[in-house]
């Protein structure tokens, strides 16, 4: 059992955040086969070939450990809308003592995997290479689908924030995860293999939705980090589902062309031009041209969200595809 004890000030310091880094770290066991939920099979089919050729041995050893993920590999995001580059910089700046302490939890001495021993012996020398590997993995496997992940996480944060406003932490934890329950001044997390007690001491609690954490509840309770819970957002079952793919898009393909029909089928949730290009194996220029035509026909809408120009199909496009369009909120910057 893990206990997180709250003081009077902590209850006013509950915050939510999304983290590209959390998605990256928890996607690794899914890709490696340590955990392969059926719900992520479409992503697996997409990502497997794209990471071929990357040397992921150190990242795999860190992220798919049998018991814990080292704290320094996914530190709590400093802001609600975490930026991936900032999170990588935080890893690169991890003190050597912190790295070694975290690796000791994976296995001391000869129990530590051989591929991790250079990192243990000289963190300052090895961390830049780890960060470069994570950046390459991000570009290949996670960045192309990040708008989908971000949209789902943002929708969940909005829902949970509403619960917090109307019913406090008790309402939030009513349906967050079966392992967590709130009792007056503390949060209890049922983890039979772990025993820990942490007082928040005015630091509050951070709640981070993460698609690839599904179906687990992950707890960061060690000092000096803010107590953090990583949980699965609502709606994962529809994340990778393109109900309008395959046979349902064929009649439309005969009318407007296969590429444009496939593009519309992928726009159930907002996606950027580069993500669409990656999904459909087209150039960004070709995707932009298709989007321009579809916008003029009122089949696609586009809006800017931070650095991204996001596109989503309209209800009319949904009708043409044979399935109603879902009105997913555009991700916040």
From TrEMBL:
<keyword id="KW-0805">Transcription regulation</keyword>
<keyword id="KW-0238">DNA-binding</keyword>
<dbReference type="InterPro" id="IPR045981">
    <property type="entry name" value="DUF5937"/>
</dbReference>
<keyword id="KW-0804">Transcription</keyword>
<dbReference type="InterPro" id="IPR036388">
    <property type="entry name" value="WH-like_DNA-bd_sf"/>
</dbReference>
<feature type="domain" description="HTH arsR-type">
    <location>
        <begin position="240"/>
        <end position="332"/>
    </location>
</feature>
<protein>
    <submittedName>
        <fullName>Transcriptional regulator</fullName>
    </submittedName>
</protein>
<dbReference type="GO" id="GO:0003700">
    <property type="term" value="F:DNA-binding transcription factor activity"/>
</dbReference>
<dbReference type="InterPro" id="IPR036390">
    <property type="entry name" value="WH_DNA-bd_sf"/>
</dbReference>
<dbReference type="GO" id="GO:0003677">
    <property type="term" value="F:DNA binding"/>
</dbReference>
<dbReference type="Pfam" id="PF01022">
    <property type="entry name" value="HTH_5"/>
</dbReference>
<dbReference type="InterPro" id="IPR001845">
    <property type="entry name" value="HTH_ArsR_DNA-bd_dom"/>
</dbReference>
<dbReference type="Pfam" id="PF19361">
    <property type="entry name" value="DUF5937"/>
</dbReference>
<dbReference type="InterPro" id="IPR011991">
    <property type="entry name" value="ArsR-like_HTH"/>
</dbReference>
<dbReference type="InterPro" id="IPR051011">
    <property type="entry name" value="Metal_resp_trans_reg"/>
</dbReference>
């Amino acid at each position: 059992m893990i206990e997180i004890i709250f003081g009077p000030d902590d209850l006013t310091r509950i915050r939510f955040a999304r983290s590209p880094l959390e998605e990256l770290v928890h996607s690794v066991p899914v890709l490696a086969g340590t955990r392969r939920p059926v719900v992520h099979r479409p992503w697996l089919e997409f990502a497997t070939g794209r990471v071929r050729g990357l040397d992921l041995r150190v990242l795999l050893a860190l992220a798919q450990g049998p018991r814990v993920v080292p704290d320094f590999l996914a530190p709590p995001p400093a802001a609600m809308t975490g930026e991936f580059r900032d999170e990588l910089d935080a890893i690169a700046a991890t003190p050597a003592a912190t790295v070694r302490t975290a690796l000791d939890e994976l296995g001391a001495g000869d129990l530590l995997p051989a591929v991790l021993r250079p990192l243990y012996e000289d963190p300052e020398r090895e961390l830049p290479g780890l960060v470069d590997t994570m950046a390459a993995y991000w570009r290949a496997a996670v960045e192309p689908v990040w708008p989908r992940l971000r949209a789902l996480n943002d929708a969940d944060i909005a829902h949970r924030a509403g619960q917090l406003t109307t019913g406090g932490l008790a309402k939030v934890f009513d349906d967050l995860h079966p392992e967590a329950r709130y009792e007056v001044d503390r949060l209890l997390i049922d983890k039979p293999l772990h025993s820990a007690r942490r007082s928040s001491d005015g630091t509050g609690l951070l709640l981070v939705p993460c698609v690839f954490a599904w179906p687990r509840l992950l707890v960061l309770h060690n000092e000096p980090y803010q107590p953090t819970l990583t949980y699965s957002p609502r709606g994962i079952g529809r994340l990778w589902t393109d109900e309008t793919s395959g046979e349902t898009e064929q009649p439309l393909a005969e009318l407007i062309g296969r590429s444009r029909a496939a593009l519309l089928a992928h726009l159930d949730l907002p996606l950027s031009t580069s993500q669409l290009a990656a999904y459909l194996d087209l150039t960004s220029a070709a995707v932009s041209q298709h989007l321009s035509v579809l916008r003029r026909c009122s089949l696609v809408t586009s809006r800017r969200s931070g650095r991204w120009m996001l596109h989503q199909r309209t209800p009319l496009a949904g009708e043409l595809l044979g399935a109603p369009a879902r009105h997913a909120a555009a991700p916040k910057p």
